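User: Can you model how FE2/S2 (inorganic) cluster sits in this protein?
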Amino acid sequence: MPTRQRYLFVCINRRPDGHPKGSCAEKGSEALVVLLKEALAKRGLAKDVVRACSSSCLDMCEAGVAILQEPQHVVYGGVTAEDVDAIADAAGTGAVVDRLVARGAGEA
Ligand code: FES
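Assistant: Here's the modeled complex, given as structure tokens:
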């Protein structure tokens, strides 16, 4: 089983309808995992460079759909399908999509 240089953890936590915190799944994150995997595969990155994984709650619920990129240790917030290509491109090189960063490396 190969390890990857980078990982994208996509929160797919789902809370009951009407929960005050909402959840990433409620905002469409399950579909984003599929799109992200497709985007990485299309770029030839999925096998040994970047792995997209689903995750439980990253405690960034207020930021919209949250994705953690490691080892850069940044959390993207409010991610939509329109952001998937930019995230895949950045993860391929170890860069970060600055406009999506909700919590950066070293922030509490
Ligand atoms: S539900 Fe996704 S970060 Fe909390």
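A couple of observations from the model: The radius of gyration is 13 Å. DSSP finds two helices and five strands in the chain.
User: Helpful, thanks.
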